[in-house]
Amino acid sequence: xxxxxxxxxxxxxxxxxxxxxxxxxxxxxxxxxxxxxxxxxxxxxxxxxxxxxxxxxxxxxxxxxxxxxxxxxxxxxxxxxxxxxxxxxxxxxxxxxxxxxxxxxxxxxxxxxxxxxxxxxxxxxxxxxxxxxxxxxxxxxxxxxxxxxxxxxxxxxxxxxxxxxxxxxxxxxxxxxxxxxxxxxxxxxxxxxxxxxxxxxxxxxxxxxxxxxxxxxxxxxxxxxxxxxxxxxxxxxxxxxxxxxxxxxxxxxxxxxxxxxxxxxxxxxxxxxxxxxxxxxxxxxxxxxxxxxxxxxxxxxxxxxxxxxxxxxxxxxxxxxxxxxx
Length: 326
Known about the structure:
- There is one protein chain.
- The chain is an alpha/beta fold.
- It has helices at 7-13, 47-50, 64-71, 81-86, 106-115, 138-146, 158-161, 189-198, 235-244, 261-264, 267-282, 293-304, 308-319, and strands at 3-4, 29-32, 35-38, 43-45, 53-54, 92-95, 101-104, 126-131, 153-154, 175-179, 185-186, 201-206, 209-215, 219-224, 229-230, 245-249.
- The strands form six sheets. A five-stranded parallel beta sheet has the order 9-10-14-8-16. Strands 2-3-4 form a three-stranded antiparallel beta sheet.
- Strand 3 and strand 4 form a beta hairpin.
- It is globular, with a radius of gyration of 21 Å.
């Protein structure tokens, strides 16, 4: 069903079918309960005023004053429930060279920057691995953030994406956000490169139906306990993955039970956080803050080593040394 501006007029003229699939759900806009959010200008428009068409309407709303505060940099992000409840799951205290305690929130900055790509009006070809121990709250956090925009989020597991009909789950979606239930093995890096922007459009094969062309996704975030094993990828294919990848550690000081948090944070608060993160990223010229490629490669190689846990828990603690790669 087509909802939004022009629907009644089209129906009255008997030409509702003239709306092309490519014209539905334009990525610049987000259909909310109380209007259409222009993601480029961060303004709320009426459905008739927007002159766009959607196949869904999200069951969440936002007011103009909040949008104005976000645009002008006046929004109280620290008062947002998402940041308030999850900030210390990324941050931790450490001592500086002078022995003074300071709060290290580098991973939080990486996370905000990554999530800022979700509602970007431009496709930033971004993928993040959210890595942390069991109980860190990774799945809960993704559930909280995807709830207000669920109709535009795919939750497909990495393994399924490489199947013949793996892209079918991505039709009509803008973001991939999934929690990997088992140890993640990425056998087809080229598939991830395609999904996250190697080409502007990808072909989705469908069971018992004709294939369709769909836009590559805005962004993705895969939550996992350990870094994935990457098989059979090298050279330009692997470099292309690292060029769009961010590795984010979620192992801060807060290890309290996350039970109940998901129900306590409203979809409205989650949407405000996503819009604020998008504005935060725009003020930085749409440059995603992330680790350098060399650091990511060394981290992935080190953590993929079968004896990495033993080395970290026993050798590094005893000698205060670290190792790179194998």
